[in-house]
Each structure stands twice: as C-alpha cells, then as structure tokens.
Predict the structure.
Amino acid sequence: MGLLLAAGCAGLGTGRLPASGRTWHELASEHFVVRTDLSLPDAEELIGQLELLRAAVLAGLFMEGKDPPGQVEVIAFESRDEYHAFAPSYASAYYLRNPGGPPRIVLPGGLGAMQKVVLAHELTHHLSACLFAIHVNWLSEGLAVYMEALADVRLGTHMRLGQLPEGRLPRPALRRITVRELFEWRDQPLGGLWLDHYVSAVLLVRHLIDRYPARFGAMLGRLAKGEAPDDAFAEEFPQFDPRRPGGLESLDKEVAARVASGLGFPGREIEVHAGAAWVVQPMPPAEVAALRLTLWAYGPRKEERALRAELAEALRYDPAHPIALQVEARLDGLDPLPLARASVAAHPADPRAWTFLATALTGPERAAEREAALRRAVELVPQNPAALTNLARELLTDGRPAEALPPAQRAADIAPWSPQAAQAQAAALAGVGRCREAVAAQLRAINLYTDRNGVAERERLRAEMETWQAGCAPTSAVVPKS
C-alpha cells in the first residue's frame, strides 16, 4: 500500500551537500508556509510578497472574491549553491504537487524576476485547479503564461497584466497553432511542439481578455460553478461556438489579424488588496535536516555516501525522526516496523510517525492496527488531506466504501488540487453505487494529472470511469493507487 508520507529517496556529490549553517525559520500565513534560512526581515518580505502575488493571480483570473482553501509550502534557500544541490538543472525555481502534503515551491533566496515567473505560472495552475472543476489545456496554459507578466511589474495595489515575456513572443521559428487545434489539445501537443502551443494559447487568452474582458470573466465564473468548458465558452461567445461550423475559425481569423498587426494589446489594469498576518517560529535542526532529505531526489546525481552523511546529520539531531528512519530503512534494507514503532514511541503527536507505522504494518493480519494508526494520524491533523486520503484508501481496500466516503470527501474539499484525493472520493462514491458522482470525481482526478508524463495514468482512470458510466454496483470500486 503506497501511503502519502513525504520522504527522501537514494540519489547518486561527495560528502555532505552544501549547508549554510544559518538559523531556519517557519513563517505561516493563511495561504503559505515559508521555510527558509533567509534573514528574518527578508523572510517576512518574502511571505508578504507571496500573499500579494497570490492575490494578483486571483484578480487576473477574475476571481478577486474567491479564496480557495489550503496552504502552499515554500522552501527558500539563502544560498544558491545549497539550492542547486536540491534542484533540477537550470531550474530558477520549481513546483511539486506533493501527494504527501501541500503543494511545494522551492526557490533560491527571495523573489527575483525568474522566480516570480515560475511562481506566477505555477500559482495560476494551483489556483485554477482549486477553482475550476475541469482542466482545459489551452485555457490552463494560456492563463498561466499570461500571469508570467507579473514578474515584470512592481507588486503593489495597482498592476497591469498583459505584457508577454520575451520567450513567449511569436517568432518565425514557431508555428501558430490554430484555435480549433488548441481546443482539441488533450494530452500531447501536435508534433510534440510544447512551446508553440504555449505561445498560441497565451495569444488566444490575451485576445479574449483584451477584446472581451466581461465575457471572458463570465466564462471563468461559469467554469467555477462546474459548467462543462465547451458549454461555458459557447454561452459567453456564441459567435465562436466550437460546435458550430466555422465558429472557432472566425475566432482564429481575429487572433491571426491581431498577431499580424503587431500585438497591440493594451493590457489590463487590476487592483490588488492582500492584507496578511503570519506567525514566525524557529525550525528545529532535525526538521531542517529532514527537509533536505525530502528534496534529495530532485537535485543532481549524488553518491550514496552523500546521502548517508545527510541521514547521519538528521539522526544526530533526532534518532527517532520518522522521515530519517524511513530513509534509513530503505537505504539499508531494514525491517521498517521496529523503526516505525520507535518513532511513534518518541513522537506520539507526530502524524508522520503514525503514517510511517501504517506503511510498515503490511499484510491482512495487521489490518486492524494499520487502520488504527491511520485513524490516529487523522486525529492529530484532521485537516490534512494526505492523512484523510490514506484512511479512505485503507477502508476501501477492506471493502468498506461507506466508511471511506466521509474522509475521502473531506480530503477532496480541503485539497481540490489533489488527484489522489479526487481518486479516493471517486472510488468511494462508486463503491456505494453513486455512479454519476463517481464519474464526475474521476473526471476531476483525470484532469488534475496535468504532468506530461501522466498519460498512462489518465488512460487507466478513463478506462475505470467508463465502467462506472455503464453502472457501478456497491463495493465494486477499485482502490486508487498513488
């Protein structure tokens, strides 16, 4: 059973990786948890700017009055060398939709221009997943690229959106994807031309926002209410109805003429208000060490001795830390159960320890204790979607969909961005015979797997959904896998 517990994996540097040796702090606001070794004034500036950027993205989405649930975790390394030890090559910042916790953004230092590009783009995806039930590629990517303009403006009360970054401008080497092709874009783009699709999508979004702002905002409002994308588009843009012959082609002519005229987009003024308070506390050294372990797999290749040095550092500060012990068990091929019991004994109020214990309690003969461990994790963090999803999966595996449904639904409400929560909700609904609702939840899970490597998983979920469309008998649902 694959439970949702964030943990590092063995990668392949030499010695322990760079560490600043500075004090780390955790700053928690309503929408962000920032973990950083920046100076406290710089850290407070960062979290204030993050709240402002989030409010700007919501305003850009015509959703100023909406406040999607949940927090985003931001890890900011003061040292760029330390950041690059835990970051993909050439990434100025990166985003992880972490199944074992909140979405995570990792970046070096404060908010430079390139970091703001990544943050604006990924926050748009995150908030869109919370606001809109169905992911539409042209709209999702077009909006995310459109918001990249926030990197070039001073974050404040009044901002102007609409200026495309240099790398997103059309040029002869790029092929302009037609509007109909964009509407038909599902998984892979035509010919694998990702940049062509991104540029064409943002040109379409910019045209609609600039020429028809009220209608475009109303269309997004319809999507937020759960309307089907083509229906919402056709209601607000009947002259471009995608189901009417020539509808999208007439829109395509408008966009092509706009591009040919030199992209005379005036942009859009938005007014942003983001009053935010936050709580600051120091991070224990053991938590800093564990955080580095959870990021291990995302950096360049490292030798095993570097991982062992990191692990030894974590265990020096806390010999029973659940993440460190889980890494130790995997690295040395140890029986995880004694380690998990030791972690629970030392940290009875840490839900990660109880989740670690549940992963170690394998086999049907330990089902009762495993369920009890998962229930204890939920008791400790009743608003944690991973804990709720883990419990729902266990109950589904045991053939108890009616009991699985409440935690699964609560997880989906708390984390509308999580495909794992949506899958658990869909399986529980199918298991109690609520087929139509199961199909809707499964469709949401499919649309939340937006990673270009997730094609096979989406196909598996679609096949499962088709069986539910034909009718689902109680307790027939398949337990979703992570």
The radius of gyration is 23 Å. Strands lie at 25-28, 32-36, 72-77, 94-96, 104-108, 158-161, 268-271, 279-282. Residues 231 and 406 are 31 Å apart (CA to CA).
